[in-house]
Amino acid sequence: MVTMHPLMHVVSACVREPSVPFSIPIPMTTSPSASLPRRRVSGFVCALLACAFATPALAQTAVPPVVLVVGDSISAEYGLPRGSGWVSLLQKQLDADKIKAKVINASISGDTTAGGRARLPQLLKTHQPKVVLLELGANDALRGLPLAQTQANLTSMTQLAKKSGAKVLLLGMQVPPNYGASYTRQFAQVFTDVGKAESVAVLPFLLKGVADAPNALQYFQSDRIHPNARAQATIAGNVLPELRKLLPK
Fold this sequence. Notes:
Layout: H1 32-61, E1 66-71, H2 86-96, E2 102-105, H3 113-127, E3 131-135, H4 138-142, H5 147-163, E4 167-171, H6 181-198, E5 201-203, H7 232-246
Parallel strand pairs: 1-2, 1-3, 3-4, 4-5
Helix pairs in contact: 2-7, 3-5, 5-6
């Protein structure tokens, strides 16, 4: 509901001429100078009304763009204190840099590209994001799902996001070497291929500086799969430069 600005009510005084015989009304003569104050007041009231109706439009332009993160346990703060994951740190860094954006974390631990594909239409409708970050695919590999299926799901999600008017950033993942050199290479290529085919941005490896660090174990929880709290700032730092490029100027 729009709240109108308070307006000053202007009351014009009525001047009556002295009465004359037979109560014949005497016409009043108004000089140009006499109407000048009323014109000034009318202009003032119009200006106030213009400001009142302009306020909702200004408020609409001030709404920060939404950044929607659709991911798995890497983004869902698995095993971490609430608010300490890389997605939360990303929001804090945007705020510190005075970049207006609202980050919505729609990540679910254990999610696959198929799960993300099923959830995405409603997420897009609910949040109407300007940018969508897709961090999915690792659980597909852990479950031994076909790479073609992973690629098809990522492609579908990318197309859905683009159709809604959002820009897309694919957050690439890599699998451990014990999966075999061929599979490891093909898995990483999936993200590159989708990004190229759909003309969207790709961060080749979300965990760069974490999983490939010389002392990588210090950045992981005891399961050696999920990054610990120490790694979250590095992950957020990997994403932030790419996200900046996609946010409205």
